[in-house]
Specification:
Layout: H1 11-24, H2 28-37, H3 44-62, E1 74-83, E2 86-95
Antiparallel strand pairs: 1-2
Helix pairs in contact: 1-3, 2-3
């Protein structure tokens, strides 16, 4: 299946415009101007149609490759409890999905 069959422009041009619009938030008219500087005459409404058509498809295909970022939102609960007559510090970190933070191995001194 070719997603670009019957299109008047090459797939690299279409995907480049869609990527620039989605990544950098460039307006359609600015993209039109950028393409004309590169010798490609395309109207801003055509770019709009490309974004409406191809952006959801690109997101669907790329979602598989996206990895969770390190900027997770964590919640930490901490308290002191008495264990066998001694007070111990207890904490648990949970991410926003409800997963428990991995415990780091004890360091050997």
């Amino acid at each position: 299946m070719n997603d670009f069959k019957w299109r008047h422009f090459q797939s690299s041009i279409i995907l480049g415009c869609v990527r620039w619009y989605c990544k950098y938030g460039i307006s359609y008219r600015e993209l039109e101007e950028m393409m004309s500087e590169r010798g490609i005459e395309v109207d801003h409404t055509t770019i709009y149609r490309w974004v409406q058509h191809y952006a959801p498809k690109m997101e669907k295909r790329l979602r598989y490759f996206w990895k969770p970022s390190l900027g997770y939102s964590w919640r930490v609960d901490e308290t002191y409890i008495k264990v066998k007559g001694q007070w111990k510090y207890l904490y648990r970190a949970v991410d926003k999905r409800g997963g428990v933070a991995p415990k780091e191995p004890d360091s050997v001194s």
